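This is your field. Have a critical look at the following sequence-structure pair:

***
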Amino acid sequence: MPSCIFSMFHFQELLGGSDSCQTDCCDRTMTLILYIIGDLALALCVGGMVFFAIVVAPMVFIHLDEINAGKFIRAIFPWYYLFVIITASIASGVYAYQLNYASIGLGVTAIGALYSRQILMGKINIARDAMIIGDEGSNHIFDKLHKRSVRINALGLLTAIGAIVYVSIKH
């Protein structure tokens, strides 16, 4: 009977270990599994952010009228931000032990998404509603807040891409 479950799957060969799965081998295996989880979360985070910016957002305004586009955007953005918060936080947590620069960058991404979801999105919606009913002063407020949200999202994407580069160099 193997001394460690991972020896049944020959992980020690991938890690350069011997036939017996000792504590060091199991530690390296667990580290490998954590990095795989972190790498997958990071890939999902960046992929989701890019897909949303390049495909979803433009398609909404191409294929839906202004009223339905607004309804759809209001419905999807909380979920988009939640997705970014979760994936960036998982990757940040995994990388915190040894890849601290990646962890910090992903923490910035998660915090930016949290701020956008919990604070900025509500203010943008209020300004947009005021625009719809004819408050001309709200146009400036909406534009300012929308630009802020775009900048925060772009910063989050850039820091997540930076994390990919950093992790790739360090692995």
Notes: The chain has five helices and no strands. The longest helix spans residues 23-63. The mean pLDDT is 88. Helices lie at 11-14, 23-63, 66-95, 100-132, 137-170.
